[in-house]
Design brief:
The structure is a homodimer. Helix content of chain A is 41%, strand content 13%. Chains A and B meet through α5, α7, α8 and β5 of A and α5, α7, α8 and β5 of B.
């Protein structure tokens, strides 16, 4: 089955639109774009369109490719300080001469809708964040929509005496997940969340010798590398769940084999956009202005 | 071969002793113990002994088992504020009624030798921490001492066209690691570090149905569960590296098969203690008082 990302996104957007209307508040999201990256511009357009559709103001700040780190940091501080701006996103990747993490750290926690500053990540990795990073939220929404239960009971393993204590506490709930890539936006965050949900996670990076050996056994594949056709049919188990954040999957062939799969268009993209706006509403709902 | 943890610890302690003597500064480490846990008392004693041996003052603060979260938080704030205390550790686990992470968060970053507050973990997970969590540092020291090279060149995989871009950048350096447990002190932190070093990491938790299927293939096993004889001979590959933080390994039998293994006594324990003191010296060396 092909995952209908647009349908899930619509549902999220309707929910937050309603929440917004009830609160009677007007929100603004600021997006920062450095350089002339056409793909990033397209992403910003999609976010802008979704935001405006539900009555959220969207403002784009553009800076030249060769801006210095110091200059950009100062600009980001200014943007973050605007009281009528409730969320700030920096479109990634930034040009290579910039220190991405130090710039992400300028965004105060209460406006960090992408959950990418050091502080926000500290909260996320200690399981104390009230919002989830958009890729994680998107995955969670897909699991909910298609009732993929990482926590489903499964008798196997309960008899294993080594895990007796654990097994008594909760039913065995293992699903194996192969995560491709360990980047800032997807792999690192998704891995942590999946482990905490009870999945058995293997992380495959560019250094992994035999990725197919791991992925072929996995109940689900989550990918965030950004390399076309990295994941081919022979690397996927019959019936597996395939969630492709990086456009890494040979969709035409893998879709014949997967039990559930995100398409390259109308897949995770719209859900991630909706998740960003959901985070904006969540974060601002605990603020005064 | 059996890993000589005491030897590695001695080396670290000698280095920091020298560094301390050069600086002419006197340092103090504070340890917080809640309740009457004999095992934790023993750990504190080991830290105290190692600290005093190299001229670091060690102070233990003990609180009753039934102390409230608020009361303990206030006490921790007081302890952390003492200017002549350069590092604070909270012995874990705390009694179940306490909110461990919120209490760990009282320790300011510049005194957080265990790298466990939300802020310190944010730094660690964004690869911006100047010190490593003690378990990670211990593992790193073992790898250095025994020349276990996660970065070793390996021709395999370089020809794989899917990884061509990556492969050109660096030689293939994959080692597979099975990490048992995803706890606060070991699994979560160790997994992140290993992935960043180029290892292919699989995380096994209490929900994993067939841990042996993963661990039997792994070049190294890192364990931090705290469950005796969880890891038995049939779960380990011939020649594997086995690092046991949780006393989880059936040492008698596994040691016959492993290429390199930490013993239950004189293994990781002394190295972790030395790593805590190393962190104290590192953190305080960038401070004025």
């Amino acid at each position: 089955m092909i995952i209908d990302g647009r349908k899930i996104a619509r549902k999220i957007l309707e929910e937050i639109k309603e929440k917004l209307q009830k609160s009677g508040r007007s929100l603004r999201l600021a997006a920062v774009l450095v350089g002339e990256n056409q793909e990033l511009k397209k992403f910003i357009e999609l976010k802008k369109k979704a935001a405006e559709k539900i009555g959220i103001e969207f403002r784009t700040y553009e800076f030249p490719e060769d801006i210095t780190n110091n200059k950009l940091r100062r600009e980001l501080n200014k943007i973050s300080k605007v009281k009528t701006t409730h969320g700030v996103i920096i479109e990634l990747p930034l040009p290579e001469h910039l220190n991405t993490q130090s710039l992400l750290n300028t965004i105060p926690e209460e406006k960090d809708v992408d959950v990418l500053s050091e502080k926000s990540q500290g909260k996320f990795f200690t399981n104390r964040s009230k919002i989830l990073p958009p890729a994680v939220e998107a995955m969670k929404q897909i699991f909910e929509e298609y009732k993929i239960d990482l926590k489903g009971p499964d008798a196997k393993g309960i008899e294993d005496p080594r895990f007796a204590n654990y097994a008594l506490r909760r039913a065995n709930r293992d699903k194996t997940a192969a995560v491709f890539g360990y980047g800032l936006l997807v792999g690192k965050l998704v891995s942590h969340w999946l482990v905490n949900q009870g999945a058995t996670v293997s992380i495959i990076t560019e250094y992994t010798k035999e990725p197919e050996k791991i992925s072929r056994e996995a109940d689900m594949i989550i990918s965030g590398v950004g390399k076309s056709n990295l994941i081919t049919e022979n690397m996927v188990k019959e019936g597996a769940v395939v969630i492709d954040f990086g456009r890494d999957v040979d969709f035409k062939n893998v879709s014949k084999k997967a039990g559930l799969i995100t398409p390259p268009v109308g897949g995770v993209g719209p859900i991630v956009v909706a998740a960003v706006l959901k985070n904006l509403v969540e974060l601002s709902s605990s603020r005064k202005y």
